[in-house]
Specification:
- 2 copies of one chain form a homodimer.
- The first copy, chain A, is mostly helical.
- Chain A has 2 domains: 4-222, Up-down Bundle (Four Helix Bundle (Hemerythrin (Met), subunit A)), CATH 1.20.120; 230-274, no CATH class.
- Helix content of chain A is 75%, strand content 0%.
- Chain A contains 10 helices and no strands.
- In chain A, helix 9 (240-258) packs antiparallel against helix 10.
- Chain A is globular and about 60 Å long.
- The interface between A and B is large, with 56 and 56 residues.
Chain lengths: 280, 280
């Protein structure tokens, strides 16, 4: 693997940043706020940031880069798909419980639901994430989708996965902003008490976590390699990844034969499409 | 151009969404708030969202996709770099003026500066954006940087450009959240007055604008095509784009000669790197 040392350093940073974010969320709830409980009061609300940061930020981030881990490249693609889908399912379940906590708290306190930009974008992100999971399961895990459909859906799946991940982080930043303004009254947020500095730092941590995950997920040379023998792949039944790889080999031959600019561009486009594979 | 109709539709949507966001920011300032002035009062603060949305969101978004416009592909790369750098410079100037407005307002009103997560991440984004502009100018516009340096910096430049753009949108969402909580007291934000619904809608508009720009910027088949004749390029002096293209052609020959998996992977990585070109 090219740049293995850098990859390991970034992976270590991502895991450390994600883990630290969860620790910060727990310290915020348990030390600065009212703790954690399921009582319709503030301690129930506090499950919201803890579960969002654990599932919807940390676990989702790891699910995105799980194909990149070079020691998993010997595992079957099916196993890796199951791990990717499994991690995303855990993230979705934690996100849904975190929503129940906040709706329950609002209802108990007679606070309106769904009035803030945070809630509008956050709920949309959860719904799109669930759709992405169902669609990913149907197209890439179940054996029914034709290869052409998989190849068409793959770049959309990768793009929407990364977009939802970024949107979730943006939504978390809005949530932190809201909560600090509402919770800090004397001293106010604007007088920068210790809790404000601590939770602002949490916000910075998740932005850096997101940046590291997005860098790792978009480096082409860190992708899980595809097998290179079309005959072997046909024997194995193939999948959408191998399909793009076969196109690539065919396009190669075409280029050598004709060496035209149009053929080169066509191959370039196909290669780039193939480059989109392997995040699910 | 592959998918020209879709490209035109998305370009039209991006321009419409960006323009509508600026209109929404103006209506917010002029109709719902205190208008626009430079008087140390709320009307001075209002320049902050108007200028951020105009420059740091709309103009920056257009600067990101300007290389994709197929009718510019006949223009020289130098001209397109100047337009890209020029648009980003305009965006930076507007962002800096928007910061002056908010610091000036805070100082006049004895409100502390730089206490919120919005301010921490927003100021960091402006500083990184300025560094990105200076570095981009030095490496890609001035004629001194060796081609190998340009090829090394290009993927970092593209990644940080898109990351800063996404971070700016996240910061705008935090800013909207802050301002609505502070400004709406009776009726409060939580009772969803008309202004709250209007400005939440503005938040949704900029997220969709960002999503469209990021889709357009990351589609490999919508990239500005590179010239394909290494001899011609050498005569013209070449640049980082042509350099990666030359590597690509050389790598091609190597592959045909050896046809090894290692060579194929190396070429794949180089091609993918080359695929990162042309966003500056």
């Amino acid at each position: 693997m090219e740049g293995y040392g850098l990859f390991l350093g970034l992976l270590g940073s991502a895991v450390a940043l994600g883990f630290l974010s969860v620790v910060f969320a727990l310290v915020w709830a348990l030390h600065y706020r009212e703790g954690l409980a399921w009582d319709g009061d503030a301690a129930e609300f506090n499950w919201h940031p803890v579960l969002v940061l654990t599932g919807f930020v940390f676990v989702q981030g790891i699910a995105i880069i799980v194909y990149r881990l070079p020691w998993t490249w010997k595992c079957s693609k099916l196993l890796m798909k199951l791990i990717h889908a499994g991690l995303n399912t855990i993230a979705l379940i934690l996100a849904i419980i975190s929503l129940v906590a906040v709706f329950d708290f609002h209802n108990a306190k007679k606070i309106p639901n769904m009035y803030s930009l945070h809630s509008w974008i956050g709920l949309t992100a959860v719904i799109l994430y669930a759709l992405q999971l169902v669609l990913g399961f149907a197209v890439f895990l179940l054996p029914f989708a034709p290869l052409s459909l998989r190849a068409t859906i793959m770049p959309i799946h990768v793009y929407s996965g990364l977009l939802i991940f970024g949107t979730v982080i943006a939504t978390a930043l809005m949530g932190i902003t809201e909560k600090l303004i509402f919770a800090l009254k004397s001293p106010a947020y604007s007088s920068s008490p210790e809790e404000a500095l601590f939770v602002n730092t949490l916000g910075v941590l998740i932005v850096v976590f997101g940046a590291v995950v997005l860098w790792m997920a978009t480096r082409p040379h860190w992708k899980r390699p595809a097998e290179h023998n079309p005959k072997l792949l046909q024997q194995n039944g193939g999948n959408e990844e191998e399909s793009t790889m076969t196109d690539y080999n065919n396009a190669d031959k075409t280029d050598v034969e004709f060496n035209s600019e149009a053929a080169a561009r066509k191959r370039n486009a196909k290669l780039d499409e193939a480059g989109q594979r392997s995040t699910m």
